[in-house]
Write a structure and sequence with these properties.
Elements: E1 5-9, H1 13-25, E2 29-33, H2 36-45, E3 52-55, H3 64-73, E4 80-84, H4 89-97, E5 102-105, H5 110-134, E6 140-143, E7 146-149, E8 154-157, E9 160-162, H6 166-177, H7 185-191, H8 203-215, E10 225-228, E11 232-235
Parallel strand pairs: 1-2, 1-3, 3-4, 4-5
Antiparallel strand pairs: 6-7, 7-8, 8-9, 10-11
Helix pairs in contact: 2-3
C-alpha cells in the first residue's frame, strides 16, 4: 500500500520543520516548499505524487489563495487544507471559494490537525472509487441563462464561458439529479464530499454561495439554489 505523501507549503522554516516532524511520526511522507510558485511547479511535475496539500496563505511570490485557485482551474481535485494565521470570517470564506477543503487557524491544536489530515486523506482515497457509481446520470443541464455539459465540462452563462472546479461541477450535478427535492446538508457532505454527514464544516455553504454568484441574476435573492431553513437546500431549474 502506498504511503501517503503530503506537500507542506510553509515559508516559516521552524514551523514547517515542526509540522513535518509530527506528520512523519504518523507515518506520512512530507515534502516542504516555501513559496507559491514552487508549490505549483512541484505539483505540475507529477500531479499524482501528492495526496494532500497543507497550505499557508501568506507566501512569497504567490498567495495560498492563488495557489489553490490555480490547482482548481487545472481540474486538480487534490485535498487542500489551509493552515493560516488569518482568522477573519472573510478569509475563511475566500479560502472555501477558491476550492479549499478545510481551513484551520494558527496557532492550532496538534491532535485536531492530525485528525483533519487523516480525514482528508481518507476522503481523497474514496473520491475516485465512489464517484462513478454515486453521481446522478445527467449529461446536459440547462436552466435560467446557463448551459452545463457534464461530459465536456463546458459551462456558459448568457453565452459567456465560465469555469467550474471539479467539486463545483460535482455539486451542481448532484443538484441536477435531485432537482426540486430538499437535500439535507448532511446528504451533501456524504454524497458530494464523501465525508461523514456529521462533519462540522462550512464547505457546502461556501460552495453554494459560489454557485449563486455564477448562475443567479441576483445572488442575494436566489431563484435556483434555495435555502430551506432547518432542512437543507433545493435546486429549482425553472426558478422559484
Amino acid at each position: 500500500m502506498k504511503t501517503a505523501e503530503i506537500l507542506l507549503v510553509e515559508d516559516e522554516e521552524h514551523l514547517a520543520t515542526g509540522i513535518r516532524f509530527n506528520l512523519v511520526a504518523e507515518g506520512y511522507r512530507v515534502a516542504i516548499v516555501g513559496d507559491g510558485p514552487a508549490a505549483l511547479e512541484v505539483i505540475r511535475e507529477d500531479p499524482d505524487r501528492f495526496d494532500l496539500v497543507v497550505l499557508d496563505l501568506m507566501l512569497p511570490g504567490m498567495s495560498g489563495y492563488a495557489v489553490c485557485e490555480a490547482l482548481r482551474s487545472e481540474d486538480n481535485d487534490i485535498p487542500v487544507l489551509i493552515l493560516s494565521a488569518r482568522t477573519l470570517a472573510e478569509d475563511r470564506a475566500r479560502g472555501f471559494e477558491v476550492g479549499a477543503d478545510q481551513y484551520m487557524t494558527k496557532p492550532f491544536d496538534l491532535d485536531e490537525f492530525l485528525s483533519r489530515v487523516k480525514g482528508l486523506l481518507a476522503l481523497y482515497a474514496l473520491r475516485a472509487e465512489r464517484r462513478s457509481i454515486r453521481e446522478p446520470a445527467v449529461g446536459v443541464l440547462e436552466f435560467g441563462e446557463a448551459r452545463v455539459d457534464f461530459e465536456t465540462h463546458e459551462v456558459t452563462v448568457s453565452g459567456e464561458s465560465v469555469h467550474l472546479t471539479p467539486l463545483e461541477l460535482r455539486l451542481l450535478r448532484y443538484f441536477a439529479g435531485n432537482a426540486r427535492r430538499v437535500i439535507p446538508r448532511s446528504e451533501l457532505l456524504e454524497e458530494v464530499w464523501d465525508a461523514p454527514g456529521t462533519l462540522r464544516t462550512r464547505a457546502p455553504d461556501q460552495f453554494i454561495r459560489r454557485l449563486r454568484k455564477i448562475f443567479e441574476p441576483d445572488p442575494a435573492s436566489p431563484r435556483h439554489f434555495i435555502t430551506v431553513r432547518d432542512a437543507g437546500y433545493r435546486f429549482l431549474p425553472e426558478g422559484e
